[in-house]
Amino acid sequence: MRSGPLAGARRVTATVFAAQGAAVGAVSTTVPAVESHLRLSSLAMTALTIALTLAAGAGSFAGLAAVRRSGTVAVMRAAVLTAAVALLSVAWAPGRLAASAAYVLFGLALGAVDVSVNTRAATVERHYGRSILSSFYAAWSAAGVAAALLTAGVSRLGWPVEYVLTAHAALVALLALTVRPHVLPPTLSSSGDRPAPLEEGPAPLEEVLGRRVWARLVPFGVVLLVAYVVDSTVSAWSTVYLHQTLAASLAAAPLAYAAYQAGTVTGRASADLMVRRVGPVAVVRAAALLAAVALAALAAAPSWPYAVGAAGCAGLGVAALTPLCVAAAGRLRPGAPETVLARLNVFNYVGVLVGAGASGGLGATGHFRVAYAIPAALAMVLVTTARFFRTHGTRAAAGIDTAVSVLSSRPPHGRTP
Fold this sequence. Notes:
Blueprint: H1 5-29, H2 31-38, H3 42-70, H4 72-91, H5 96-128, H6 133-156, H7 161-177, H8 211-244, H9 255-278, H10 280-300, H11 304-330, H12 337-364, H13 368-382, H14 395-408
Helix pairs in contact: 1-4, 1-5, 1-6, 1-7, 1-8, 3-4, 3-5, 3-12, 4-5, 4-7, 6-7, 6-9, 8-9, 8-11, 8-12, 8-13, 9-10, 9-11, 9-14, 10-11, 10-13, 11-14, 12-13
């Protein structure tokens, strides 16, 4: 087992991923309780969710500037502490205006965490010399499961939402206090004869993408868009769906979110192995089909226990789509994968906004079942795009790690791992 600064840096990075996952889980699983506490309509809550997403986009650019000035570790610690403060502010907001400001602050903090922790993760991975990025994303999802279970547990005890969010804020703040800098040794250059720079230098001049590359990028962009429509629909609104439509208690409603995140942990852990065994085309088809069936089951669930199981299966399917999509897009221009993947982020932002906004709007009119049926149909369409993921040899699995690592060094795209 490794020890020393490198292992410490890995632990700290995983801790920040976990803090972010816990914070997102806290917000997602307390939506119905906050709605009731502040007497907000579903439409008003949808507007808040969209504002949070837009704020996260702005926070990513602000975080990038802060990283350049103060370094990744300082920004990670400050951003996670700010997220904890925002959770407390939501909990004890005296009115709707203050709560809205707190949600915006949370979004800004979330974006800053994204850009700083992903930058740090890419640096740590380079020092290890092998793919370890999936372990960071697994920490994110595992913390989301823990946050959902915490919400369910304290809600079952009859705690009001103020105390529920305070418990979450305390957990996130404690994780932030464990963040420490670790001076990493210089990495070796590709020739292995001398150390390479520790930090990345100025970005190279952006390569102009031709129309042919743009046309080939669209199928992968569509997959990513649908994946994030599904993700934001389940993450942001499954708790409300179980509570309002399926009559689940405030203690049981967060379990769909927990099951979904547990499914993503399993999917992320098994995707590379499945690609090596059966190839990316078969994996994409199976993942899209599983996501579609699971979402249809979620839409038609007769009671909340069925919905919890369906949400877990949806997470299992969607988890495999995103890394495969990123890897395939990165191979379109091997000499400039960062340029291609930066363009791919556009589809990500659109997916998050459409998923959170459209599903929230449908839910506000009492049609949450339709909100899950539509992504199910979209996921079925992805089965026809699987042929675009055809690769040669066994590089597909390695391509996942490489492309995700490149993407992780970019500003984030809407939300974490």
